[in-house]
Amino acid sequence: MAKLNTEELLDAFKEMTLLELSDFVKVFEETFDVKAAAPVAVAAAPAGAGAAAEEVEEQDEFDVILEAAGDKKIQVIKEVRALTSLGLKEAKDLVDGAPKALLEKVNKEAAEKAKAALEGAGATVTVK
Known about the structure:
Blueprint: H1 6-15, H2 18-32, H3 38-44, H4 50-56, E1 62-68, H5 73-83, H6 88-96, E2 100-106, H7 108-120, E3 124-127
Antiparallel strand pairs: 1-2, 1-3
Helix pairs in contact: 5-6, 5-7
InterPro entries: Ribosomal_bL12, Ribosomal_bL12_C, Ribosomal_bL12_C/ClpS-like, Ribosomal_bL12_oligo, Ribosomal_bL12_oligo_N_sf
Keywords: Ribonucleoprotein, Ribosomal protein
Domain Large ribosomal subunit protein bL12 C-terminal: 62-128
């Protein structure tokens, strides 16, 4: 294969769609065991593709969904109350009405912490 200079590489990238470029970056990262920073990927994208590049970025808001209370319903209600500002009746209603969203648009750390606490109490939880 002929060696390409920087201009030729940039011209090749300009011809690629955002999805093709994203796939290339993934293969590049795997091949060379590196992680490309998001600003580099956006800078290499063709002009006007900035909005589409944002959609490719990693999810930063998560919803914690209580799927089922399990057989330790009282423990699950206690955890729901600890994770939210709900009163006893509201927490019980939420647990009885599962599947229901418990936390919405929280960061990954809070979602994982809530999932671990609820699963520890015997509940079935999904993070989306």
